[in-house]
Amino acid sequence: MTLKYLAALLLSLTVFTSAAQPWDTARTSYYSIDVALEDIRQIYKLLCPSGCGHITIKAGGISNNAQAKYLRAKETEISYDPEWMSYLARTYGESVPFAILAHELGHHIDFNTSSYNRMTAWQHELSADAWAGCALALANMGTSELEHAMRYSIAISPSMTHPGWQKRNKAIGGGYWRCR
């Protein structure tokens, strides 16, 4: 076996073994840490088939949101609110939490590019949206799932760090059709 193969095998065994934040079993939620881990593993395989670093995922620690936090080169922590993700799955469809985690993994990929520091906040978000669209396509989700993700983006208000839904939908759709 080559050293590169062994490194990839070790990465695949350790990428998702980090301890996640303890799950409060008194709260019942569709989007538990087990569901999130299953989705992030699938997304990682789709977007990073040869590996792209270490991801730790945490349920909780954030309210009504998900975020990717750069820790160091090729190491990112993704946190999400399981109740919020459950609400989104019920309201917009199960592809929306999947797309949100793919968006956060897209940030991880972008953190490790040479152009990341030259990008604006909106460019960071639009690039992550394109990664989310790509993950939906690579997961063989149809255009209805793409439309669900786009419908959710319409509900997000633009801000200094996040562009409006028109730009976000264009990025999501662009990523989807690029990877289809």
Kindly describe this structure.
- It is a single chain.
- This protein has 180 residues and is mostly helical.
- The N terminus is likely disordered.
- Helix 5 packs across helix 7.
- The longest helix is centred in the last third of the chain and has 18 residues.
- The chain has a 3-stranded mixed β-sheet.
- It has one domain.
- The chain is built from 7 helices and 3 strands; from the N terminus they run ααβββααααα.
Helix and strand run = HHEEEHHHHH
Name the assembly state: single chain
Helix content: 55-70%
* Largest beta-sheet characterization: 3 strands, mixed
Structural class: mainly alpha
Helices and strands in order, then pairings?
Blueprint: H1 3-14, H2 33-47, E1 54-59, E2 66-72, E3 75-80, H3 82-92, H4 95-111, H5 121-138, H6 143-154, H7 165-179
Parallel strand pairs: 1-3
Antiparallel strand pairs: 2-3
Helix pairs in contact: 2-4, 4-5, 4-6, 5-7, 6-7
What characteristics describe this protein?
7 helices, single chain, mainly alpha, 180 residues, 11% strand, 56% helix, three-stranded mixed sheet
